[in-house]
Write a sequence for this structure.
């Protein structure tokens, strides 16, 4: 599993743990549901702003490490 897929899986886990649907989270993050689905699948090329918005709503911090 690559790091983009891992990120998507973690965001999906956190969304479910917070009891949110994809529609609800997308609305709270100010992104489209399609973009959120893509992020959770580890597909496409979402903007860093979209990923950070989702993480912020979920109370997660994104750390870039080597």
């Amino acid at each position: 599993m690559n790091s983009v897929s891992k990120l998507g899986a973690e965001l999906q886990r956190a969304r479910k743990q917070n009891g949110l649907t994809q529609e609800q989270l997308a609305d709270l993050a100010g992104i489209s549901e399609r973009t959120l689905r893509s992020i959770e699948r580890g597909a496409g090329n979402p903007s860093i702003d979209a990923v950070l918005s989702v993480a912020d709503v979920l109370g997660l911090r994104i750390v870039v490490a080597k």
